[in-house]
Write a structure and sequence with these properties.
Length: 299
């Protein structure tokens, strides 16, 4: 009877001679590779250190101690300014002044009931300027005097009824309080006329003949002028004379400097005819008088 083979009679794959030889070959190859690498490092140790040092110098130079660019000279600045002037169209002083005052300009509408029972109709147009951001507006008294209803239209298009809260007939000025105001209402900046001189640039902004807002530019033509209304009923004194074009509808608008600061309120034009159009002489009430009509210091 044949004997059953014992477990030890089966070859162990982990301890077989073939596998042992394979492991031995792999170990030898690994040892040879490590040996070659060590020999290589030993052989080229100095060049390797030199190369590493060179790389360190390069990176340090690039990121830490890169020398600054050459010093900018006046010639460089002049050339840059000249290039900008040649390639960009800069806004004119009048355009910059208008942009400053534009958010504070309002259209003042004189409304009267419609005889047929419809909506109130516009019977006259003037201009106003916001001088306090709570909705306080300056305009001419003759723009709103006797009006059944006064409405103002702000720069953003918001329409609001307004109440006349003050009058200064000797300066043809009226103060309005708007019932509703924009959230971001901007009040104009006022400037003293003490240093105003003939020839100073000024801009008049408003709604001539209801068209606008419009801007016209000119200069101060005279100071402390007098003007009597065509009807001869009122004499206005201490006026600013200017030559920026204004017409009916411009009344009550701001006269501003090149910086957009209000120095006067447009109030009248001198015209030898009965046509009431501009011939080159306009008048504005100094802002000191205008601010006094509100009861607040202008500056």
């Amino acid at each position: 009877m044949a004997e059953r083979a014992s477990p030890t009679d089966h070859p162990n794959p982990l301890t077989s001679p073939d596998h042992a030889r394979e492991n031995s070959s792999a170990d030898v190859a690994s040892q040879q590779l490590r040996s070659r690498w060590r020999n290589l490092c030993v052989r080229y140790e100095r060049p390797l250190w030199v190369g590493a040092a060179a790389l360190l110098v390069v990176f340090t130079h690039a990121f830490l101690i890169t020398p600054s660019s050459r010093q900018i000279t006046q010639e460089d600045i002049s050339a840059a300014v000249l290039h900008t002037l040649e390639t960009h169209t800069l806004p004119s002083p009048s355009a910059k002044a208008y942009e400053v005052i534009r958010p504070s300009i309002v259209r003042v509408r004189r409304l009267e009931p419609d005889k047929d029972g419809g909506e109130d109709k516009e019977r006259g147009v003037g201009t106003g300027v916001v001088i306090v951001d709570k909705g306080i507006i300056l305009t001419n008294l003759h723009v709103v005097l006797g009006a059944k209803r006064v409405q103002v239209v702000f720069a953003d298009g918001l329409e609001s009824d307004a109440t006349i809260t003050g009058m200064r007939p000797e300066h043809d000025l009226a103060v309005l309080q708007a019932h509703t105001i924009p959230d971001d209402l901007v009040a104009a900046t006022m400037r003293s006329t003490a240093d105003l001189a003939l020839g100073d640039q000024v801009v008049a902004a408003g709604f001539p003949f209801g068209i606008g807002p419009s801007a016209t530019a000119g200069v101060v033509s005279g100071l402390r002028r007098e003007f009597r209304s065509p009807e001869g009923k009122q004499l206005l004194t201490n006026l600013i004379q200017f030559d920026a074009a204004v017409n009916p509808g411009s009344s009550g608008g701001p006269l501003v400097t090149a910086q957009g600061e209000v120095v006067g309120i447009v109030t009248a034009i001198l015209n030898p005819t009965d046509q009431r159009f501009f011939v080159g002489i306009g008048f504005a009430v100094p802002i000191e008088n205008a601010a006094a009509a509100v009861g607040v210091p202008p500056f």
